[in-house]
């Protein structure tokens, strides 16, 4: 943790400032120590450079397992293909140039596949995840730019409000207990005029017929380590059948979904070995998540329109994608009341 983070972090319990104690520094970062709130008296550890604002065991433990075992699989720098780069900019609508020098919040960073893209554009990135995937993210990206990594809860983000120029949350919202609440807490992190981009799994007419959703009634109750063991053996056995069906003319791409694994052959520019690796990773992801709640375009749009946002766009691009801009009206009114410092104290 770089000490500059103290300018924007607050106790997630009471939003008061935190003091750093027992710091063990290494180079320019704090490797170990504690962050203590003298108002609510909560103490938050810093372990392996990461401030930890949540308990180690939580509903996202499966994600910690998968991203620490497949910590580089989905990084563009590892795969050699611009898969994450294309998705990041197609969904956000942003440009690499506009991110340079901006403070960016990655909510649900996982192993850092999208944080890598933002860092490569020169952004100052704060990456947050609920799981121990933060360790994989730090391992992958430390030293690659202006990066801070935090283990925190989307329902209690440990920041001064309105500190970020850009906020994105990709591949995460459907896996939280309350998707609407999770989404509607994000704009509070935006500076006036800041930009928000999110995605969520799409809810279609036939999604409930997909084997994923009826098998999950069983698999999400299996301990993560056991399910991972099963997945590692089932995917290699089933992948040849999925590949064979998928290559049938016209109907193959749809029909291969009857085989209960994920298969990106012909969808993503991956080698055969990478198709197998991604299949194990995302099949485990698919069956292990405690929560998996797809949403429609209309629902996501209605949730965003309940908020004080501008330039709202919601559309289907594989995922249901939402974009918006923070409205400056509330900030202008606050300034008239002499409350500007509330929003800018950590700028």
Summarize the structure.
The chain is of the alpha/beta class and 347 residues long. It contains 14 helices and 11 strands.
Largest sheet: 7 strands, mixed
Structural class: alpha/beta
- Could you name the ranges where pLDDT drops below 50 across 5 or more consecutive residues? 331-347
Distance between the termini: 18 Å
Helix run count: 14
Q: How would you describe the shape?
A: globular
Give the integer mean of the pLDDT values: 92
Instruction: Please indicate the percent range of residues in DSSP E strands (runs of 2 or more).
Output: 15-25%
The string of secondary-structure elements, in order, is EEEEHHHHEHEHEEHEHHHHHEEHH
Strand order of the largest sheet: 7-6-5-8-9-11-10
Number of strands: 11
C-alpha Rg, in Å? 21 Å
Proportion in helices? 25-40%
What does this structure look like?
The structure is a single chain. The longest helix has 23 residues, at 224-246. This protein has helices at 61-69, 76-79, 83-92, 96-99, 113-120, 133-141, 179-185, 211-219, 224-246, 252-255, 272-288, 297-305, 329-336, 340-344; strands spanning 19-26, 29-36, 43-47, 50-51, 103-107, 124-129, 147-151, 164-169, 190-200, 309-317, 319-326. The two termini are 18 Å apart. It is 36% helix and 21% strand. It has a seven-stranded mixed β-sheet, sandwiched between helices. It has a four-stranded antiparallel β-sheet with strand order 1-2-3-4. By secondary structure, the protein is of the alpha/beta class.
Structure characteristics:
347 residues, alpha/beta, seven-stranded mixed β-sheet, 11 strands, 21% strand
């Amino acid at each position: 943790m770089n000490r500059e983070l103290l300018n924007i972090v607050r106790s997630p319990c009471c939003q008061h400032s935190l003091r750093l104690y027992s710091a063990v520094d290494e180079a320019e970062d704090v490797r170990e120590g504690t962050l203590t709130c003298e108002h609510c008296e909560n103490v938050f550890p810093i372990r392996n450079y990461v401030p930890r604002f949540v308990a180690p065991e939580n509903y996202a433990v499966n994600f910690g397992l998968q991203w620490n075992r497949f910590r580089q699989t989905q990084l563009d720098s590892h795969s050699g293909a611009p898969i994450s780069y294309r998705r990041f900019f197609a969904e956000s609508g942003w440009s690499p140039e506009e991110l340079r020098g901006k403070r960016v919040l990655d909510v649900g960073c996982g192993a850092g596949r999208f944080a890598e893209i933002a860092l490569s554009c020169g952004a100052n990135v704060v990456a947050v995840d609920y799981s121990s995937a933060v360790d994989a993210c730090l391992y992958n990206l430390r030293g690659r730019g202006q990066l801070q990594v935090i283990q925190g809860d989307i329902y209690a983000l440990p920041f001064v409000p309105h500190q970020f120029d850009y906020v994105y949350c990709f591949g995460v919202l459907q896996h939280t207990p309350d998707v609407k609440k999770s989404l509607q807490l994000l704009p509070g992190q935006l500076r006036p005029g800041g930009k928000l981009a999110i995605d969520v799994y799409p809810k279609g007419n036939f999604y409930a017929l997909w084997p994923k959703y009826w098998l999950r009634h069983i698999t999400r109750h299996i301990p993560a380590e056991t399910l991972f063991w099963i997945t590692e053996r089932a995917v290699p056995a089933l992948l040849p059948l999925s590949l064979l069906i998928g290559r049938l003319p016209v109907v193959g791409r749809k029909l291969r979904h009857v085989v209960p694994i994920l298969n990106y052959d012909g969808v993503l520019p991956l080698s055969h070995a990478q198709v197998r690796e991604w299949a194990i990773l995302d099949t485990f992801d698919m069956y292990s998540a405690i929560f998996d709640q797809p949403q429609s375009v209309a629902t996501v749009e209605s949730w965003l329109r309940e908020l004080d946002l501008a330039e709202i766009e919601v559309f289907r691009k594989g995922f249901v994608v939402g974009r918006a801009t923070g409205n400056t009206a509330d900030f202008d009114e606050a300034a008239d009341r002499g409350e500007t410092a509330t929003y800018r104290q950590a700028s």
